[in-house]
Write a structure and sequence with these properties.
- It is a single chain.
- The longest helix has 19 residues.
- The chain has 345 residues and is of the alpha/beta class.
- The protein has one domain: Alpha/Beta hydrolase fold, catalytic domain (Rossmann fold, 3-Layer(aba) Sandwich), CATH 3.40.50.
- It has an eight-stranded mixed β-sheet, sandwiched between helices.
Length: 345
């Protein structure tokens, strides 16, 4: 995607095309330095990578935005967020980290949802420990994602202190991050609040995995299994299900893990399309209402006339979305929100 964009720009300049300015507004590689496919962990031998975009700014350090892609925890990789990352790197002064994590369909369809959460936790810890090399400020971190990526971001915000060295999730209902700082245990990371972030942007997210599993997520009724060419199964393995093991499913559902007001959460910005057929505005508002009732700060924007996945690269004829036509307005709102959170004192 990145090399293709550069090639198109070259052809358009040679041809004198008037669309060059439009393309550069979405992606101007002269505005940033890109480190691609940086390996940050290799759980069970599977390399996990991220792309890091460093803005060419006058600042010695910059705030950091970590992106987790969507795809129902079963499909896509971070390339689906390439255009969003490029737009942000072109039009803002944030270090952008576009992250890959394991999918349920990986490793012969054996990955479990708690392991995916552990990947998200590990990615944040790795970035905090290494981002200074890319002019990032580890004290100014925001997380974002769309759909499944929004779920992972919400888990970081709500459950970042639910850590344990016990690798049996079914016993502890806590998480052992895929990557840990040297000589630190999960318990020490939790004691130091090492997964704290300063802001979250949650786009058309899934916040109630327990309900989704009761409604058929783990069956053939969920088309993502077919699209990923995987056999439908339990997200923790076929020996568990939401009816018999509800606590396992609630522990990965942000809506059941909202801290009381005594534990302050960072400001959160929610985005959803008014016509979203997968994560409805009503479901997002239900989650926001629970956050607000516990005293947490939220902002909400409903994108009129838009369905699901309007932040994804390219276009989706089924959902009627196009990045170039739909995403910039939404991302400009994200930039405005981040600028308010990280405004210079």
């Amino acid at each position: 995607m990145k090399n293709l964009t550069i090639a198109l720009l070259t052809l358009l300049v040679i041809g004198g095309c008037s669309d060059v300015e439009v393309l550069l507004a979405n992606n101007d590689p002269s505005n940033y330095v890109l480190a691609e496919d940086v390996v940050w962990s290799s759980p069970k031998g599977m390399d996990l990578t991220l792309d890091i975009y460093t803005p060419k700014s006058s600042r010695s350090t910059n705030p950091v935005l970590i992106i987790f892609h969507g795809g129902g925890w079963l499909m896509n990789d971070n390339s689906i967020m390439d255009q969003m990352s490029q737009y942000l790197a072109t039009n803002s002064e944030y270090v952008i980290c576009n992250v890959n994590y394991r999918l349920l369909s990986d490793l012969d369809n054996t990955v479990t949802l708690d392991e995916i959460v552990e990947d998200a936790f590990g990615a944040v810890l790795w970035i905090k420990d290494n981002i200074a090399k890319y002019k990032g400020d580890k004290t100014k971190i925001a997380v974002t994602g769309d759909s499944a990526g929004a779920h992972l971001s919400a888990m970081i915000v709500n459950s970042g202190m639910a850590l344990s060295s016990n690798d049996k999730y079914e016993e502890s209902l806590r998480f052992n991050p895929t990557w840990l700082p040297r000589n630190k245990t999960p318990e020490q990371v939790a004691e130091e609040n090492g997964l704290s972030v300063q802001a979250a942007i949650l786009s058309y997210g899934a916040f109630n995995i327990y309900k989704g599993s009761l409604d058929g997520f783990e069956t053939f009724k969920n088309p993502f299994w077919l699209i990923s060419r995987s056999k439908a199964r339990g997200i923790f393995g076929d020996q568990y299900n939401a009816e018999i093991n509800p606590n396992m499913y609630r522990a990965v559902s942000p809506i059941y893990n909202i801290p009381k007001q005594t534990q302050e959460l960072p400001p959160q910005y929610f985005i959803v399309g008014s016509e979203d057929s997968l994560t409805s505005p009503a479901s997002v508002k239900e989650y926001i209402d629970k956050l607000n009732s516990n005293g947490h700060i939220t902002s909400y924007w409903e994108y009129e006339g838009r369905n699901h996945a309007f932040l994804d690269s390219g276009s989706n004829s089924f959902l009627g979305s196009s990045f170039v036509e739909d995403a910039p307005q939404a991302i400009d709102g994200i930039i405005n929100f981040l600028d308010l959170v990280f405004k210079e004192e």
